[in-house]
Design a protein that fits this description.
Length: 304
């Protein structure tokens, strides 16, 4: 399980209202084709990497990440694009905090569709080497702007205009709630004694694990596996210890997932209580996933 950055907290004059889920007009400006745009993505270290052009010049590879509040870029591209710095943020992750600058948003082009977020952040300069394997991250504003359909079987990301989108399939439609800008889904976990517990989970496509459960939840239900060694998960501010294992069953709506792999945190948590933890891309990639923030839902279709 690897997750570099997570929740972003804002300082200075930045207003929470600017990131309201109810107003895509406040979040960004967009133009271009109104028909769905299909992008071919690359899978890199268990991550979905989407191609985009920055300000009409550089072609970037951007991590698709529902766990990020803000879209972020590597400092090299921020400097090359001469973006104006307008504030600072503190990035809070699984093991600590790091500062980062915030800048006026550039224009991203996705095969003819242009999206211009009002603001983006830069990776902390001291960690630019660690982050260099990716050019940037597409965070919550991107998911608010488009209905985002990810098909791991075909390696495609399809961008739909929310206003005219109609889901034509028979997949499982799961309601979403939001903690700030992070989507949360209600799940049910079966324990080894065959009892079931409710588990609200964040959705984090930037995590390459399947299921990550915080220490508070692990301890409350005695989930620490005894047949695996502790290992280190690196993140913002340092690292934390986990054990890897399986759960008997995870249920999302009517979908039942047998023996999903899980990382059990021995310290800290990928999500604050009362959330149990988060679902990562290793689990979601077994489905065609549709994020429809405008209707507060996620749709999962089983793939062949």
């Amino acid at each position: 399980m690897q997750k570099s950055l997570a929740t972003v907290y804002y300082f200075g004059w930045l207003l929470c209202a600017a990131f309201s889920l109810g107003s895509t007009a406040q979040a960004a400006e967009a133009s271009g084709a109104t028909n769905p745009v299909v992008l071919t993505y690359q899978s890199r270290r268990g991550h979905v990497m989407v191609p985009a052009r920055l300000n009409g010049t550089n072609t970037l590879s951007l991590l698709l990440d529902t766990g990020y509040d803000l879209t972020m870029l590597h400092p090299d591209f921020v400097q090359a694009s001469a973006l104006r710095r307008i504030g600072r943020i503190t990035i809070v992750g699984i093991a600590g905090e790091e500062p980062a600058g915030i800048f006026e948003g550039p224009a991203f082009d996705f095969s003819g569709v242009t999206w211009k977020p009002r603001r983006i952040a830069a990776f902390p300069a001291e960690n630019s080497g660690r982050s260099r394997r990716r050019d940037g991250v597409l965070g919550s504003g991107f998911f608010r702007r488009f209905v985002v359909e990810i098909d791991s079987h075909r390696k495609t990301v399809t961008l739909h205009e929310p206003a005219g989108y109609v889901y034509p399939g028979a997949g499982e439609i799961l309601p979403l709630t939001f903690k700030q800008t992070t989507p949360i889904v209600e799940a049910s976990i079966r324990l080894s004694d065959q009892s079931e517990v409710k588990a609200p989970l964040e959705l984090d496509t930037g995590c390459d694990g399947a299921l990550c459960l915080g220490k508070h939840f692990v301890d409350a239900h005695q989930l620490v596996p005894t047949n695996s060694f502790a290992r280190t998960a690196s993140g913002v501010g340092g690292s934390t210890r986990t054990r890897h294992g399986q759960l008997p069953q995870l249920q999302l709506g009517r979908l039942v997932i047998q023996k999903p792999s899980a990382d059990f945190f021995l310290e800290g948590s990928p999500a604050d209580p009362p959330l149990a933890g988060h679902i990562g891309w290793e689990l979601l990639r077994d489905f065609k996933v549709i994020f429809d923030y405008s209707r507060k839902r996620m749709i999962l279709e089983r793939t062949e």
